């Protein structure tokens, strides 16, 4: 390691300039590395040989930075997340991947700088109570999500496809036409869905799928406007459709302070 240097990664120039200057005044050498595609960014960060990387979770056009955390920690580089993100599930995922601390951008600036300086100068990894609490919250969230999604695991592939079609606003008649099957076949799938999800209507089944995180309503709306290949023609692609949209996300909120 070369001294105790911090590498700062954030997609807002104002954040970078302000923090770098403040940390320099506090006796911490801070180097800015501009966001870029994940592989290139990881290589750039490791090459700097910092004692700590201060990483924003959202890197603008380059997306989510959480996948960078584990490779950095495996290279003996500590990671502190600097973010305005308040979704505790997502913050918990960052800690799970190896982030030692979450520093909110909404904190008072002097306290924010002091916290970063303290963490940078500390020897080893200190257990942050808030980080541990985030891990517990993440485990509880996953347990609840698994319970809510269990009924959907009982659906057959065709029933899953039917539920996705219903979520896209299609009627039984339209689904039958798209799949080139009898309406009675589609109605049979619908009845099975209602039974397995303990739903009284198609709408209630879709609402439960959304609440369980099994369906992303925005993705389904986009798919309804831009229809995908007929599942009969390309069943493999459509069979993956529900799974690709399953990952549940808690509500995301940001608060005023440093730019996100």
List keywords for this structure.
2 domains, Arc Repressor Mutant, subunit A, disordered C terminus, five-stranded parallel sheet, alpha/beta, elongated, 260 residues, Rossmann fold, 5 strands, single chain
Share in β-strands: 5-15%
- What is the CATH top level name of the largest domain? Alpha Beta
Along the chain, the helix and strand elements come as EHEHEHEHEHHHHHHHH
Q: Mean of residue pLDDT?
A: 83
Shape: elongated
Quick take:
The chain is α/β, with parallel strands linked by helices. 54% of the residues lie in helices and 9% in strands.
Describe this protein's structure:
- With about 260 residues, the chain is α/β, with parallel strands linked by helices.
- The chain folds into two domains: about 5-140, Response regulator (Rossmann fold, 3-Layer(aba) Sandwich); about 155-245, Winged helix-like DNA-binding domain superfamily/Winged helix DNA-binding domain (Arc Repressor Mutant, subunit A), CATH 1.10.10.10.
- Helix content is about 55%, strand content about 10%.
- The protein contains twelve helices and five strands.
- The protein has helices at about 15-25, 40-45, 65-75, 90-95, 110-120, 130-155, 155-165, 170-180, 185-195, 200-210, 215-225, 235-245, and strands at about 5-10, 30, 50-55, 80-85, 100-105.
- The longest helix has 25 residues, at about 130-155.
- About 30% of the residues are buried.
- Residues about 230-260 have low confidence and may be disordered.
Topology:
Elements: E1 5-9, H1 13-25, E2 29-32, H2 38-47, E3 52-56, H3 66-74, E4 78-83, H4 88-96, E5 101-104, H5 109-121, H6 129-153, H7 157-167, H8 172-179, H9 183-196, H10 202-211, H11 217-225, H12 235-244
